[in-house]
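Morning run. Coffee first, then this:
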Amino acid sequence: MNRTEATARRGEKSDTVQLLGRIGMACYGVVHLVIAYLALQVAFGDSEQADQKGALQQVGSTAFGQILLWVIAVGLVAYGLWQFLMAAKGYTWVSGGKRTRKRIGAAARGVAVLVLGFTAVRIATGSGGGGSNNQSQQEFTAELLKLPAGPALVVVAAACVLGVAIAAGVKGFKKKFLEDLDTSELPGKTKRWIGWVGATGYLAKGVVFAIVAILLAIAGFQADPNKAGGLDAALKTLAAQPFGVVLLTVVALGLAAFGAYCFGAAWAHKR
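And here it is:
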């Protein structure tokens, strides 16, 4: 084992790193609980920004919330760094291609969570935190459309997002996330519900990612970046369908379940 690998392994196993990463995972759960709350508001007629940035802004809307927002920001950064360490030398309880896929997933999750953490820092410091998820998605789509074969590239990107959606759905349906947990660490009652809330949460996230993929595909086929959208657009698209209030309420409860799962996983994730 070379020096870099040894350093990564020591960091990933460190009690301090584990503690900070797990606190960060709980903070990630808080963000999903707030998103679920905003999604319910959308379902019943409120036009709140129901995405990660909207959730962070909601958290920071009071004096106490400002303190909590800083805690979440630091926690998210710690969680992102922990995921990078897991990508470097983690998931030793599996091997072969499965371990490789988990490490790649951890790296991608680390990037996404770090971006979210720095957005929280910007909101906490009053510098805005950038545009909405929808705006970012539309800007990304517009840049792709400018390239040669741009519409085709956007459709390919949509296919990639759909792949993420399917992976999340399969992970939830088969409860593959339990492979990464040591459920013996959980209190008795928690052992009974962690599988249910995890499955429900991953299925809900799969639905949301699938809608984002559909919107992105439409933007590619029509060469119109304004047709693309992120989490907020996906939830509002769902709300606009027949029985949209019921559908969005179910998805909102699923996102809340994922938030609850993050609390249990933060406690029981394997080292």
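The radius of gyration is 19 Å. Good start to the day.
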